[in-house]
Amino acid sequence: MEEQKTPPTLEELQALIEMTNTLNMEIFYWWCIALMICIHAGFLSYEIGASRLKNALAAGVKNILAFGFIVPSVFLLGWAVYNAFPDGLVPRMDALMAGMPWSESMGPNIQDNATGIFWAAFAMFAATTGSILSGALIERARMSAFIILTIVLGGFLWLLAASWGWHPEGWLTVKWGYHDVGAAGVVHMIAGFFALAVVINLGARIGRFNEDGSANAIVGHSMPMSVVGLMLIIVGFFGFLGGCIIYNSGAQWINIYGQPTNLSAFAFNTLMGFAGGLIGAYLTTREPFWMMSGGLVGIISVAPGLDLYHPGLAYLIGMGVAAAAPLVNNLLLKFKLDDAVGAFAVHGFGGFAGLVISGIFLAGYPNMNGMAPISFFGQLGGALVMAALGFIPGYIISYILKHFDMLRVPAHAEERGLDMTEVPAQAYPEWNAMYGQSTSVGGSEPTSGPLIGDTKPA
Hints:
Layout: H1 10-50, H2 56-84, H3 93-98, H4 115-136, H5 143-165, H6 171-176, H7 184-202, H8 223-242, E1 245-246, E2 254-255, H9 263-285, H10 288-302, H11 311-334, H12 343-361, H13 376-403, H14 411-416, H15 418-422, H16 431-435
Helix pairs in contact: 1-2, 1-4, 1-8, 2-4, 2-5, 4-5, 4-7, 5-7, 5-13, 7-12, 7-13, 8-10, 9-10, 9-11, 10-11, 10-12, 11-12, 12-13
């Protein structure tokens, strides 16, 4: 006679439910991480297309190397920085030690289903900052200088910014009520302002400006490749923003600050911000590169309030900020600043405007555990902190590299092309045999074509 199985106890059922929830959490973030890699495939494609033929591979290799150097930087130091510095510049030593590579949680551990998956998501956020920086510097920055800069930006600075403003106990949130659910400040502003500072010291590409200060167009070799790359970035952003929400086992989703939210709110406002951004940039430029980048501006500009905005308001915010972004890029050109892909206008300005606007529309929304509510001055102050945290280190480090002649390739190398001098390889070796030398500003003969407000953004 068959033995009857003993039914599970309540404790066993509870343990089974809890483990199921834990595994579901791991699976959710696992696929968010996979989607986030699409961001880097997108930047790779976009920046290759935005470069001239002689620089196409160099732009791609920089993106690949950024990924390769930033991920171990976050493992060796960045994760500890995020956990240890929510109070400012004085670390919490226990949290610092817990995030170091020799900690039990920083490796395979059957008792810890969370640390590795969250670390990986943060590493992907970090790699995004490196890709943002990469585009602004194409066609004249030394590969070695870029690697140094991207390690500092992605492996340290963004994690410090996240500890201050994207941590449930970060001082910006505790004291000022700073609210940045979708990382407009801690990722995009940090990278955008860092890139602006480096561009100031790096200087413009040869042939970019005339003696009278007017700008020449430097047109990338593949518009379709750039447009497809931008759309891939948008696809990846659904993983990026999925990583901005906390899976709360057995309860409602919460945002990074512990406030209740859900993926439905994120879906409404991400798509509406994206759509508004497309139209806003199209209305002011009629230009496909800025139209697609306007979609990205739209998402960034609504990112601080993804969990709270009405979708109609998200559409209008995305449209307005994206309409202004090309004008910001034109303003940089007036100062002879050659941000090759409009990285500051898209990420720096888009993030700043989004934070300030959120302070207007979300002021008074309560925080958790008695912390300060959202306020206009809290959002403005947080935006200024992010701008300074990105710009000042970026300027100092790039100035030092410039002083030692380590920031920029020599003029003859820039004229010849970075593919042959920095990689070395050719993206299209049959091109010269079939069509002769490709035209380029500062190369054989000036490129023709309209100014793109004034170049392709990313």
